[in-house]
Amino acid sequence: MVFCFISTTVSPPALIYMGQHQEENEKLLKEEGMENSDDLWFHVDGMSSAHVYLQMPRGMTMETITGELLEDCCQLVKKHSIQGCKLDEVQVVYTMKSNLKKTKGMASGQVSYVGFHNPNMTKLHMTTKKNSVKILKRLMETRWKT
């Protein structure tokens, strides 16, 4: 099941999509309505986690994303990582959806470092448990299934 969240940290509010399993992650890679190549993909670096896609607000880029919106996305992938949710901090990798590359032989929903067209077009963000309860509570209040 794919979930959608609304981040009210920006105006107008931003839509965030999350797949928790391989099939859902694969669906999000191909999802209609998520075809904007500037949309961002988030994943806990080096660990299993949900895939999160941020439908980029008009006029915002990967370089100009607000710290609050970035943190919303990072907290979602941290919370939905079997290993990452137990740690005080994790590193989250993110990139534009257009930078994701599926190669033959990759499992359903899988994207890895060899799955980027340009690894230099990725960014890393360290996220911690600090304020996570408050952020996740706010996001969970907006959650719905797509």
TrEMBL record:
Highest taxon, organism lineage: Eukaryota
InterPro entries (alphabetical): Jlp2/Ccd25, NFACT_RNA-bd
NFACT RNA-binding domain residues: 1-114
UniProt cross-references to Pfam families, sorted A to Z: NFACT-R_1
Subunit structure comment from the entry: Interacts (via cytoplasmic region) with ILK.
Protein name: Coiled-coil domain-containing protein 25
Lineage: Eukaryota, Metazoa, Ecdysozoa, Nematoda, Chromadorea
